């Protein structure tokens, strides 16, 4: 799977002068480099373990888009898409390339989008070898023949050691991630968290594909069955996107970023997976556990002196991660393209414990829940959180969506109707009470619900088969193969109607309050897709 390239390249055209360029190193070479330089430690599983430093996650308030002729009228400017002056970008860019000049840098040519018709060539310039190894894992890998004529369209310049001066450079603090659509550059500095690299290109594609290619970009995972039926899983971090799409009975297309084309195909943007490993176990998630071997990178995990990883230890961060090339998973679709989407799953970890573990959505409800992008934060995940807190991220990926959320929702709605897909809301969160009282829905039952949908076992949308939830209006199945019937009704699991409805109304109010920002542009049908009952 590896390329063996000896050629070197110059970076003068980027303004990086007299650098020692380590070009297109293999995964094995980068692994050895990391160990030799002390940037990483080999774990007992063979994967290299690194510490990303000050930042162990993305920094959304430090993500900017250059406001220029291309973006000024298209981007939804907000506290998510923060404008950056073109002049300030140019000055900061010069500082960064001067910083990288005369240093050893690691350069990788790669591409995004598995469908040839949408391919985006990318050159990644990294200050650190492990960032370059991450790029090897996460982007698609050109063949030697493709590299002979490779011409980058976008460039990622990644300098974690460079610290901006906010007063001079126009940033909020010393770290930054800036997209420039005119110059086709993602400029990243001050943060070693590798997720900024992949999400920078994802954000760029979330603009390019809908604006220029009439293709819907999606923050989702996807897999395909033996009958060539594609399933799509939307969800925020920690809801089970990677886990549930990695299924031994279905071929994985990808775990995080996809496009849905006019031709009704779904293609992976990436060449790898970036999975959370908090509490990972071989028994619960065997495919992901087996992917952690030489060639993979563990981030911010805690190991003992023998290199044994304690996946339950979150003393560095709750956001412990592994990146690995997709071929570390045995059952994958090659190329990473699926056709004929049949089912879409919206995943949410409802820490209030009031949403059904599975429910079927009407098209209007699907559009409403897509725009809402609900999950919940629980105590311990962020400083200051003592009880469940609703968290809404439009399109299940607001931090990466440059356009107004309704643009994506309308595209999804159209595609759902054209393809005749079924949409399901899956609560991978709490049952029998909210966080601290109830318990997390066992993974084996969530898997059984997903399998029942994919096998066509849940029957048609009839009163005999479904109960309409009295607060949220969604249709919850009355029975499901492999799942205890009492688990399907969240109210029944609480055994306390008064307390259940009090919390259910609290969450429905949060939905309605969040949706007010979209009401002016959402149709009446979409507005009616939300909770119809609420407390005053």
Write the layout of secondary structure elements.
Blueprint: E1 20-23, H1 27-37, E2 41-42, E3 48-50, E4 63-66, E5 82-84, H2 86-100, E6 104-112, E7 120-126, H3 129-138, H4 144-148, E8 154-159, H5 166-169, E9 176-180, E10 185-189, H6 195-212, E11 216-224, E12 230-235, H7 241-245, E13 251-254, E14 257-260, E15 265-268, E16 272-276, H8 286-291, E17 297-299, E18 302-303, E19 309-310, E20 321-325, E21 337-339, E22 341-348, E23 358-361, H9 363-372, E24 374-377, E25 389-392, H10 405-419, E26 422-427, E27 430-431, E28 439-440, H11 443-454, E29 466-468, E30 475-477, H12 490-494, H13 497-515, H14 524-527
Parallel strand pairs: 1-6, 3-17, 4-5, 4-9, 7-8, 8-10, 12-22, 22-26
Antiparallel strand pairs: 2-3, 6-7, 9-10, 11-12, 11-13, 11-14, 14-15, 15-21, 16-20, 17-20, 18-19, 23-26, 24-25, 27-28, 29-30
Helix pairs in contact: 1-3, 9-10
Number of strands: 30
Computed Rg? 23 Å
Q: Which sheet architecture does the biggest sheet show?
A: 9 strands, mixed
Percent range for β-strand residues: 15-25%
- Sheet/helix structural class: alpha/beta
- Terminal CA distance reads 60 Å
Rough outline: globular
Give start-end ranges of low-pLDDT stretches: 1-6, 380-385
């Amino acid at each position: 799977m590896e390329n063996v390239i000896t050629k070197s390249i110059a970076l003068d055209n980027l303004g990086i002068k007299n650098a020692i360029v380590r070009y297109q190193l293999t995964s094995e070479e980068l692994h050895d480099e990391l160990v030799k330089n002390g940037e990483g430690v080999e774990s007992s599983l063979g994967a290299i373990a690194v510490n990303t430093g000050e930042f162990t996650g993305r920094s959304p308030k430090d993500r900017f888009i250059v406001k220029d002729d291309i973006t000024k009228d298209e981007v939804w400017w907000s506290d998510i898409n923060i404008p950056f002056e073109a002049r300030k970008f140019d000055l900061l860019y010069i500082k960064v390339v001067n910083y990288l000049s005369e240093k050893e840098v690691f350069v990788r040519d790669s591409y995004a989008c598995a469908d040839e018709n949408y391919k985006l060539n990318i050159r990644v310039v990294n200050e650190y070898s492990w960032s370059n190894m991450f790029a090897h894992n996460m982007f698609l890998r050109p063949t030697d023949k493709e590299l002979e004529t490779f011409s980058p369209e976008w460039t990622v310049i990644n300098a974690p050691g460079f610290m901006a001066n906010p007063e001079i450079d126009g940033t909020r603090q010393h770290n930054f991630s800036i997209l420039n659509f005119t110059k086709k550059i993602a400029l990243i500095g001050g943060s070693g968290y590798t997720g900024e690299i992949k999400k920078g290109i994802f954000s760029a594609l979330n603009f390019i594909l809908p604006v220029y290619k009439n293709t819907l970009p999606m923050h989702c995972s996807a897999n395909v069955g033996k009958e060539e039926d594609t399933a799509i899983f939307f969800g925020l971090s920690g809801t089970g996107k990677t886990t549930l799409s990695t299924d031994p009975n279905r071929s994985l297309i990808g775990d995080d970023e996809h496009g849905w084309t006019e031709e009704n195909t779904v293609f992976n943007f990436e060449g790898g997976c970036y999975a959370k490993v908090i509490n990972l176990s071989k028994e619960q998630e065997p495919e992901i556990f087996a992917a952690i071997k030489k060639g993979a990178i563990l981030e911010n995990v805690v190991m003992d002196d023998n290199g044994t990883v304690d996946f339950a230890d979150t003393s560095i961060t709750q956001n412990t991660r592994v990146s690995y090339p997709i071929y570390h998973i045995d059952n994958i679709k090659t190329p990473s393209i699926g056709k004929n989407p049949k089912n879409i799953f919206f995943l949410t970890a409802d820490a209030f414990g009031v949403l059904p573990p599975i429910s079927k959505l009407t098209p209007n409800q699907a559009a409403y829940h897509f725009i809402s992008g609900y999950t919940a934060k629980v105590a311990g995940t962020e400083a200051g959180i003592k009880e469940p807190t609703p968290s809404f991220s439009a399109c299940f990926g607001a931090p990466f969506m440059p356009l107004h959320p309704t643009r994506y929702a309308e595209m999804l709605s159209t595609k759902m109707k054209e393809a005749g897909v079924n949409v399901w809301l899956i609560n991978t969160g709490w049952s029998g009470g909210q966080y601290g009282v109830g318990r997390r829905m066992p993974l084996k039952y969530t898997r059984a619900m997903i399998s029942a949908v994919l096998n066509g076992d849940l029957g048609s949308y009839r009163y005999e088969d479904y109960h309409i939830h009295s607060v949220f209006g969604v249709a919850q199945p009355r029975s499901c193969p492999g799942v205890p019937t009492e688990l399907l009704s969240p109210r029944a699991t609480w055994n306390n109607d008064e307390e259940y409805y009090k919390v259910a109304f609290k969450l429905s109010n949060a939905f309605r309050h969040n949706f007010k920002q979209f009401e002016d542009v959402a149709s009446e049908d979409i507005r009616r897709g939300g909770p119809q009952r609420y407390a005053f």
